[in-house]
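Researcher: Structure for this, please.
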Amino acid sequence: MTKEDNTLNCYMKLFPKWIAYVVLAVGIAGAFIIPVASVAFYIWIGLCGLFIAKTLTQEAPKEPVISLTETGVQLDNKQFYPYKEIEKVMAFSTKRLRFRTINFKLYLKKGTPVEFCVDNLDVKPQYLLDVINERIK
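Model: Predicted structure, token format:
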């Protein structure tokens, strides 16, 4: 999240670095359990190594997913919705299998509602909802 010129930019959250160390520990433990002569051993080591490398070398995203400017809401698909066209915003949770996701729905004065996911952002959904509601009024 960055604030510049009264604009709130929200970015995708990165994997925490400590997860790589947990995978390293689990990978070492699994390497002692799986026989060295089997193909599963090399697959296990390769997958753990790939995950560790991807986690430790991840880069911060350059483009924000959501930008709240003084005039409206800019989504990552380059759609812009001015605050004067937004009637209300609602937050709701959906469940897929065992996982819950938090989505927002912008109800526009003219047109169909716009739905977008705010689950994996570097800003809390409640803060984002409060900022949008404050600027709509």
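Researcher: Any notable elements?
Model: The mean pLDDT is 88. The chain is about 35% helix and 30% strand.
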